[in-house]
Give the backbone structure.
Amino acid sequence: MLKRVLVANRGEIALRIIRACRDEGLTAVAVYSDVDRLAPHVRAADAAVAIGAPPPAESYLDIRKLVAAAQATGCDAIHPGYGFLSERAAFAEACGEAGLTFVGPPAAAIRAMGDKTEARRRMQAAGVPVVPGTAAPLRDAADARREAKRIGYPVLVKALAGGGGKGMRRVAGEAEVESAFQAARSEAQKAFGDGGVYVEKYLERPRHIEIQVLADRHGRVVALGERECSIQRRHQKLIEEAPSPVVSPALRRRLSEAATAAAGAVGYLGAGTIEFLLTPGGQFHFLEMNTRIQVEHPVTELVYGVDLVREQLRIAGGKSMRIHPGLLHPRGHAIECRITAEDPFNDFLPAAGVLHYLGVPTGPGVRWDAGVEAGSDVTLFYDPLLAKLIAWGESRDMAIERMRRALCELVIVGLPTSQPFHLRVMDDPEFRKGELDTTYLERAGSRLLAAAPAPGIERAIAVAAAMLADQQRTVPKSVDGRSPARPPARPSDWESAARREALRD
C-alpha cells in the first residue's frame, strides 16, 4: 500500500497528480528545477525538493536525482506523469532497484511498446490489425527503397522509439526515399538517442482514434471508450474530444476488444492508451501505445465519471480498480483545448515571458487544468502547454457551445497563446459537423490561421490590460517590490510544521 508519492514532473500534470494523491489520502512530494521554484505545483505539495538547473537533462530527466529525492523524503512510489521520463523503461527499472513503486507499467511493457517494430509484431500475434509495414528496422536507404516499393507509395519513414511526430517523414515516391531516410534517422537520434527507423503505409485522410485502457494486478483489463484526436499539427494534438462523432457502439466494441487484447499482449499494468488510425471506409489499424497517462485524459474522465489518476495510484498500490466493465457507457460529450504559449498566427512559434494577468472561465460544464497562474514565468526550457480547458455537455453541440463560451471568458495577458485558434475552430463549419481527419488543419488552415485575432479576443485583451493597470495601481507592494501575496522563496517557508513532522514518520 502506498503512503508517500514523489511526483517526477512539473506544470499542470504535476498539480493534477498532487490533487489525486490528496483525494486518495496520500502524501505528495514535488520536485522543481531552479526556474520552477515558485511554481503552483511546488506550493501545492506536502514537501518539495530542488533537483537542479532548468535544462531538463539537469533536472527532470535526471534519474539519479529523482530517485535520490524520493529516498531522501521517505517516498515509497514515484509517479512520472507524461513526457520527460514517463515512457523510459530505464526509469521504471531504476525505481524498482531502489525499492520504489513505479506508478506505471512494468519496464518490459514500456520497452515492448516503445520499440515500434516489436510492438507491431506483438500486435499481429495478438490479432490486432496493424498498418502494413516492415517488421524490422531498416538497414539503409536501399533497404527503405525496397520496402517502400513493396508496400506501395505513399509511405511513412518512422522512428522506432519515441513519438510526437519526431523522426517521421512522408514519402510520396522513390525520389524522396534517400532524403527522408536520412532526415528521419538524424531527427530520431537527436530526439530519442536511437536512430532506428522503419517504413509503414501512409493512410490517406484517416481519423486518429485512441482507446483508454486500465489494467490492474488482479488480471482485469478494461477499456474506457474512445477519444477523437484528429486535429493535429505536425502530429501534435491540439484538440481532443470524447466520444468520437463517428464511432458507433458496434465500432466502439471492436476497438475496445482490440485495445484490451493489445494491453494483455504485453502484460500491461495501470493506465495506457492504444492509438488507432480509422480509415474513411471504417477499417482501423494499430498505430502505437502510449504507456502512461495522456494529456487528454480529462475528456474520458468527464464522459465516464472516473478519476484515471486515482485509479493509477490504486493499481500501483496493489488495489483493484473501481471500474466495472458492464457500466462503461459514455454520458454526454467532452472537448479539450490545449492552451499553449504559442503564436498560432506565426506558425505556432513558442513564446516566453511573464503571464501578467489570467482570468479563468468557470460555470456549468467547464474544467480548467493548469500549471500556471498570474505572475508565472513561462520559459522555453519546457513544453509550451500552459493549461487544458475542458468543456462537457449533454450533446456534442452543447459541449461546443460551452467551450466557445469558456474560450471567450478566458483572458490571458503577457504572451500569445493558442486561445484564438481554438475559438475559430469552435466556429468552423467542418468541425461543428464532425468532418475531421488528420489533414483537417492542412485543409482549414487558411481560414483558421489568418493573422487577424478572432472576434472578441481584442476586447478581452483590452479589458484585461485595463484590469492589470488598475491592479498595479491599487495593490500595495512589499519593500522588495513584490506583491505581499507572491509565494515565498523557499518551500520550507510555507511547509507547515505538521507536514514537516509527517515526513519524519
